[in-house]
Amino acid sequence: MTWPVHSVLRIARELLREAARDLAPTLVVVVIFQVFFIQRMPDSPLALVGGFAVVLLGLALFVKGLEAAIFPAGETMAFDFARRGSFFWLMLFAFCISFASVAAEPALMAVAYKAEAVSGGSMRALTLRMVAALGVGLAVVVGVWRIVLGHSIGSYLVPGYLIVVGLTAVAPPQLVGLAFDSGGVVASTVTAPLLTALGVGLATTIRGRNPLLDGFGLIAFGALAPMIIIQIYGIFFFVPAASGTAVVLMPSDDQHQYPAAALLVDFLIMVRNLLPIIAVVLFSSFIILRRPLADPKGLAVGMTLVALGLFMFDEGLQVGLFPLGDEMTGGLLRDGVALWVLYLYGFLIGFATTMAEPALIALSIKADEVSLGQLRGLWLRSLVSIGVGIGIVIGCARIVDGTNIAYWLIPGYLLVIALTRVAPRFIVPIAYDCGGVTTSTVTVPLVTALGVGLAEKTPGRDPMIDGFGLIAFASLLPMLIVMSYGMLATWWARARTRVEEKNR
Question: Do 390 and 477 contact (CB within 8 A), yes or no?
Answer without folding.
Answer: yes
